[in-house]
Amino acid sequence: MKILAFESTCDETAVAIVEDGRKILADQVFSQAKLHAVYGGVVPEIASRSHVEAISLLTDRALAEAGLTRGDIDAVAVAYAPGLIGAVLVGVNFAKAVASVLGVPLIPVHHIRGHMAANYLAFPELEPPFICLAISGGNTLIADVRSYTDMVILGTTRDDAAGECFDKTARVLGLPYPGGKPIDDLSQGGDDRKYTFPVAQVEGRPYDMSFSGLKTAVINLAHHAEQTGEELDRASLAASFTRAVSESLVPRAMQAVREKGYGKLVVAGGVAANSRIRRDFREAAEAEGIALYVPPLRLCGDNAAMIGAQGYYEYLSGACADSSLNAYAVMDISKQYRREDRG
Ligand code: KG4
After folding, report:
1. How confident is the model over 116-129, as pLDDT tens digits?
2. How far is the CA of 209 from the centre of ligand 1 (A)?
3. Ligand 1: residues within 6 Å at CB?
């Protein structure tokens, strides 16, 4: 089954074609990062307009890349939540039109379910159940993935997402947006024990996380240094900050794997590209003898191939929409799409 998939929830416009949930036939991604960099973050209005400009062209390119024609497409999948609402609406409306013109099923896909499914593309042997830690720019959560479409949240961030925390810290350090990769680069060679940052615990909720205190600690440190004229060791600050994020993520995810006994941990989302976090997960997984799945870098960030992958399993579970499909800024990952829920 060949699925034409669309992703437009934030600042990447992406179109892909995926076969049977596992094989990428085309993977087109246009990053708007440069358009937003001057503002230090994503400007929703600019994101929506840029999606409108790019999505049609990328669709033509995806068909050409796969060597397919419109008639070869069996279904259309689209990320319909969560995200910047104006941006998500562009993808949803375009996907509705394409599905209608082609006369094929329309499959709504939760964006974070898509991030998880990036791992199905990278690891053909991977099947649920497993524990998934999703760490992206807008979401941070640990889920018990019981089947391809049945998942339960074990814990989430109470405030900022991990990626957001990277981006805000980068801004304080005068690094460009998005800040994750620049911090990663800067931290190489830094002393990760030079600065002490808080690793928050949420009482009674062992899998919940909080990153706002960490963000504030970085801001305070930078302001204090500015006022006293003290020179900050930026590489060590970046390394110490990343260690604190990693210490928030790794032990919790490992604890969830232990508790559920699946022996499998999947890490997904843009922050999964971080070299220190990848290394810490590798070491922890090796020490406990669990199977670890982290996508290759090109599948960590937003892309439409992951939407096509998850779309296949959503289709098999019966989640098809009609032309009344809406877009949603917020949605629980455990919510299974049902056509009768629309409204
Ligand atoms: O998954 P993603 O592309 O978009 C969302 O769905 O939100 O994640 C984007 C986030 C940004 O916050 C970016 O700074 C972060 O992923 N990121 C990284 C790295 N590369 C991207 N964070 C830490 N280290 C990296 N190497």
Report:
1. 999 999 999 999 99
2. 17
3. 10, 136-138, 163, 166-167, 178-181, 184, 269-271, 273-274, 301-302
